[in-house]
Design a protein that fits this description.
The chain is an all-alpha fold and 803 residues long. The chain is built from 32 helices and no strands.
Length: 803
């Protein structure tokens, strides 16, 4: 105890910490150093335990006092003291019982452990004694083993002699067996031939093995055995050739004589077993017979793969030079071969191979790989557009369809969704890009050729054909859209996305084509103007050109509805619509120009002295227009309606131009009245004509402009002239100052002062007009000479007034 007190406080703290960490007192003593003895540590821990117990007791008493104080806080709780005491006594007894049970359980475990350790100690001693006896016996037997070496050699020699005796019959009859085996191979008795071959190989291999065991370095004897059995290797090679030949013809053999194929598989399985046995013996002895392992099973699969590849590659019966449809024929033959062969594999060949070969899966993959290699070779060739489409359609659609790999008989054996694609996506994209380039070039040529053919028809002496409604047309729209339809149907066989891409390409080319179409129509008109007698059917073919625009629109919309999923307009729609409208508008304008070229002489007679004295110019104009519009009735709406409105407007404008050109100046009221009456009558003639041409639609406003001017001429009281002119201006707000001056000049009785007053007053009270009002005077110009002289006259009048 005294020694423990001599320990420093640091050492005592370390002992406590290590003890709390689970170390024993011996370990603690070693840990803290040699100067600290076991007794020091033990006494320290004992003293610590006493201190801990005392501290624990004090804490327990304090806790009890506190608890009792809590129970007896009121005077009425003193009556329950006995009850509290008994309850605490029960709790204490319960805790002590649990503690005793736990300690007893621990003691029982310790007792059991000690017993097991005691038994283990006894077993270790027994084993130690037995090992000593074994070691003693082994040392005594070393000399005995060395004395048995002669016996061992004798056993080896006996084994060799026994093997030689066993194979003695085969050794002497090797030439005879070789000859018999050769005959059996030639007669296709493959199983029997293989049995004899195995006997020969077994004899050779056993002799060589025994020789190897006796003297592995004696190459002379080994070569002697090998040479004696030299013909055996030739038999093995000949038999292998027969096996490979049968496998190369497996598809035919399995239909005709499946037992032959079964025999081949049995032979290969036998050889596989022998290979495995020889390899296992090599691992033990290091000896391997000649030509082993044969690996005929691997060779069998190589032969089958080559057979499948040859069958796929040999399906091409024609070339491009001999048949333009060579690609279609090739792919169809390939499809038929693959489907027929796989059905044979499923129904017949699977039964000829062991189940673990997974025969169908293997053949399925072989055919898939062979077809993939073949189509990649085809894709690498310089294919034309139709060949590209045929190949891609077959690869992307036909191959996995029910017509081929998706056939109902095959689906039960293999999931086609697990197959790799026949062509890499990069190759597919390259083919599609090449097709688009070729198609673009081809369609440009086709469209140019179609337009050239149509142009030749324009110069024919016979009228163009009419449709079922009697409208003139040419074959151009039908040819163009038949061409588009065929290519879109072909593109649709590949996939939806590509189909839409081809349609957009067609529309893009269509826009370029229509621009050329418009240029050719303009050139056609210019050729006609050089000699209006040619072409004889110029009007009819120009009508057909206009109608073709309507047909083009309908055909384009039809293609879009049929081949486009989206209803949104494409980027070429607006350009196509604009170009078609321009072509039709130009055509209508050219026809009206033709009409007014014929009317030019008669229009020049209007508002002249000849006209005033009596002429049939307007009658002739109406008859001519009516005659032309009998042909124009074959123009489709809305172009027909627009053309009639434009003709009406131009007739009225030309009539009013005659007024503005001051071809006549009325000398007196009678001439003004007579001229005005004629103008009103002729306005009614125009109304009647265009009501007829427009099927009763409103046509009065334009012709009323002629009547309104006539009213200005007809007025007898010059003082009311301003009011009449004001009425004219209010009806036609686009009338300009020079127009009024020209009208007053034709009237002939308006003084300069009156003209100036009317102009100035109108300028001050110029009416406004809506933007949608139909313009008449806007495009009518007054000759410059007239305006210049009028300006000079007005200037002179102004000077006189100033004076």
């Amino acid at each position: 105890m005294a020694k423990t007190k001599e320990l420093s406080k640091d050492v005592r703290d370390k002992i406590v910490d290590l003890h709390k960490a689970g170390m024993g007192y011996k370990t603690i003593a070693k840990q803290l150093g040699e100067k600290l003895t076991y007794s020091n540590v033990l006494l320290e821990l004992t003293q610590l335990g006493g201190v801990v117990m005392e501290e624990t007791n004090r804490e327990a008493v304090a806790t009890a006092v506190q608890r009792v104080a809590g129970m007896l806080q009121r005077s009425d709780q003193l009556d329950k003291v006995e009850q509290y005491r008994r309850r605490e006594a029960r709790k204490k007894a319960s805790v002590e019982a649990r503690l005793k049970a736990a300690i007893q359980s621990q003691l029982d475990g310790v007792r059991t452990g000690l017993s097991q350790l005691h038994n283990a100690l006894g077993d270790v001693k027994d084993i130690q004694s037995s090992l000593a006896d074994v070691s003693k016996d082994w040392r005594q037997s070393i000399n005995t083993i060395e004395n048995l070496k002669d016996v061992k050699d004798a056993v080896v020699q006996h084994s060799q002699l026994a093997s030689a005796v066993e194979n003695l019959k085969n050794i002497f009859s090797v030439p005879e067996i070789v000859a018999d085996t050769q005959v059996l191979i030639e007669q296709a008795e493959l199983l029997e031939a293989h049995r004899k071959l195995m006997d020969l190989e077994c004899s050779r291999d056993d002799l060589m093995y025994e020789q190897y065991r006796m003297d592995s370095k004696n190459t002379h004897d080994m070569n002697l055995i090998r040479n004696y059995f030299g013909a055996v290797q030739g038999l093995s090679d000949d038999l292998a050739k027969q096996l490979w030949m049968v496998l190369q013809r497996a598809m035919g053999t399995v239909r005709r004589d499946p037992t032959m194929l079964v025999s081949v598989v049995r032979i290969i399985e036998r050889e596989e077993k022998i290979d495995r046995r020889m390899l296992d013996r090599m691992k033990q002895s290091g000896f391997i017979p000649p030509s082993r392992p044969k690996r005929w099973k691997e060779k069998m699969f190589e032969v089958l793969e080559g057979t499948v590849t040859t069958r796929i590659e040999g399906s091409q019966s024609v070339t491009r030079e001999a048949d333009k449809m060579w690609m279609v024929r090739l792919l169809e033959i390939t499809r038929k071969y693959v489907l027929d062969d796989l059905i044979v594999v499923k129904n017949l060949m699977v039964q000829c191979f062991p189940p673990h070969y997974n025969t169908f899966d293997r053949f399925f993959k072989l055919y898939h790989n062979a077809v993939s290699m073949r189509v990649q070779e085809l894709a690498a060739e310089d294919l034309e557009a139709n060949e590209i489409v045929s190949l891609l359609t077959w690869v992307l659609n036909t191959y996995k369809s029910v017509e081929m790999m998706g056939h109902p008989e095959l689906l039960t054996e293999y999931d086609i969704h697990l197959m790799d694609p026949l062509l890499p996506q990069k190759v597919v994209d390259e083919l599609l890009s090449k097709y688009v380039q070729t198609f673009t070039s081809n369609i440009t040529g086709w469209l140019r050729k179609a337009l050239e053919t149509d142009k030749k028809d324009w110069f024919k002496e016979t009228e163009p054909e009419a449709d079922q409604d009697g409208y003139y047309q040419t074959t151009l729209p039908a040819i163009v859209f038949q061409m588009f339809e065929q290519n879109l149907q072909v593109a649709a066989q590949i996939d939806e996305t590509f189909k839409e891409e081809v349609l957009k390409l067609c529309l893009k080319q269509m826009n370029s084509f229509l621009i050329r179409y418009r240029e050719e129509a303009i050139a056609y008109k210019e050729d006609h103007l050089r000699d209006r007698q040619l072409p004889q059917c110029y009007v009819q073919y120009m009508i057909a050109i206009i109608n073709n625009c309507h047909t083009f629109k309908e055909s384009i919309n039809s293609l879009k509805r049929k081949y486009l999923k989206s209803t949104e307009p494409t980027q070429n729609d607006a350009a196509i619509e604009r170009t078609l409208n321009d072509v039709a508008k130009d055509g209508c304008q050219f026809l009206l120009d033709e009409v007014f070229l014929d009317l030019e002489h008669h229009l020049s007679e209007l508002l002249t002295r000849k006209w005033l004295t009596g002429t049939h110019a307007v009658d002739t104009i109406c008859v001519t227009v009516d005659d032309y519009f009998n042909d124009f009735a074959k123009i489709k709406k809305p172009f027909n309606t627009e053309m009639t409105s434009e003709a009406h407007r131009r007739v009225v404008v030309e009539y009013i131009k005659a007024v503005m050109q001051k071809r006549i100046t009325f000398k007196n009221a009678d001439e003004r009245r007579e001229g005005a009456d004629r103008m009103i009558k002729e306005a009614e003639q125009f109304k009647f004509l265009f009501r007829k041409l427009t099927a009763g639609e409103e046509t009065d406003r334009l012709c009323d402009a002629i009547a309104a001017i006539a009213e200005v001429f007809k007025l007898t009281d010059p003082t009311l002239l301003y009011l009449e002119v004001s009425t004219l201006v209010s009806k036609y707000p686009d009338i300009r100052e020079e127009h009024i001056v020209a009208i007053l000049a034709v009237r002939g009785d308006a003084s300069r002062e009156m003209k100036q007053m009317i102009i100035e007053t109108l300028n001050q009270n110029k009416p406004s007009y809506a933007g949608n009002t139909q313009h008449i005077f806007k495009d009518i110009t007054v000759p410059t000479v007239t305006m210049t002289s009028m300006s000079s006259s007005m200037a002179a009048t102004a000077n006189k007034l100033l004076k």
